[in-house]
Amino acid sequence: MADPAWRFDRRTIGGLLLAWIGALVFSHLLRQGLTPPRLNLGYLATVAESVALLLLVGALLAFEPVRAWLRGVPRPHLTIIAAFFFVAIVGQLTRTSPRTFPFPSWTMYGRPDTPTHLQFYRYHGVDRAGNKVEVDPAELFTFVNVAEIASRVRIFARPLGSTREAAREEARGKIRDWLLAVGGAYNLEHPDAPLTSLEFVGYNWEFRGGTPASEVPPESLLRVDLPEGAAR
To answer: What are the residue boundaries of the structural domains of the chain, listed by start?
Structure first.
């Protein structure tokens, strides 16, 4: 009698369940840290997707031709393959592509980008004499691409609009460190007129509504006082 094409065993099922729980825990930690999960539609959708992935992987590992192929793979290679799939599934469930790159969620590619507004940021400084100064980080950090700076700053600033206080506080901390770095670099180049403060200002331009860019109201997002010795 021929061996069955599909076979489930306790060891495989136990390993899959453990990996499934681990993937859910890691994805939640990457998204929300130590904050307990909330039973909303978004979280339930993540759990449902994880169950679908569990069933898919389980069916694949229960298929005898696949099992026969895996039995011929050396154990170190199996470990690498398992780790790769685990990280890929964690990235899929996390849905926060910058944190899990190069293992992003498929929604990174599945959602069409049809923006109706443009968000951009500026840096307003005040020097020792009380003069207002427009600061451009791209002129201070010439070794970094302008687009890379703008992209990284957008990633820093995006959680400022989050409903979670922990995410907003983390974003403010990153922007504060960035402003101190920008202010310190400016003061090194301008020791005779150093900045005493630097403000991070955001603009939200509804460009499809016909509003001129010059009429977009600025929004002060964060302001830092620069240390006295920043110019030295």
So the answer is: 10-110, 118-231
